[in-house]
């Protein structure tokens, strides 16, 4: 079967000029919407709390959509198409180190792993931010105050400024939750940096602009040896 036949039968949405439509409009909207929402949340964290919270809710909504679209969306949007097990992922990472990785039309195994890491860390960031928005929501996590409370006890085992009325536990829980929220946000920032580095590397290795592909939805048709 020739590449042209493969193009006609398997990728009817392909465009002229040796390009194929890989990323559907909803995937692209999700991707750039998530970039904008996280950037807004990051930049407004200490200055504009209402905007920060709206951006956080937007992140949560986009993640919820992506989880659904990853099940019912088009071919390259589905998790079953690009998620790989530990073996293939490690093998691909090894090939990357040797500069011999194959080109994937959709997400490669390293990119798939990054997607999972970003979705998990962003979900944790959004959830901890949601809990912080209303102190009463800490009741959803009854173990958190007990874990954090000892940090507010003095050397004699007595509570300091928060006393023993329970306010210390609540304050400790809030502070621990805020620290966790910040750690997760910083983790997301690190993952974003690694993701951008991976996109640049793959774009250079395979001679195609992946950022532009996520804007247009089109990628170069598969060459012999590529994985479509």
TrEMBL record:
Membrane topology: Multi-pass membrane protein
Species in which this protein is naturally found: Thioclava pacifica DSM 10166
Annotated SUPFAM superfamilies: Transmembrane di-heme cytochromes
Pfam families for this protein: Ni_hydr_CYTB
Location within or outside the cell: Cell membrane
Major location category of this protein: membrane
GO cellular component annotations of the record: plasma membrane
Name recorded for this polypeptide: Cytochrome b561 bacterial/Ni-hydrogenase domain-containing protein
Keyword Membrane appears in the UniProt entry: yes
One of the record's GO molecular function terms: electron transfer activity
Domain of life: Bacteria
Membrane-traversing stretches: 29-45, 57-77, 110-133, 183-204
DNA-binding recorded as keyword: no
Domain annotation Cytochrome b561 bacterial/Ni-hydrogenase: ranges: 22-217
Keywords, ordered alphabetically: Cell membrane, Membrane, Transmembrane, Transmembrane helix
GO biological process: respiratory electron transport chain
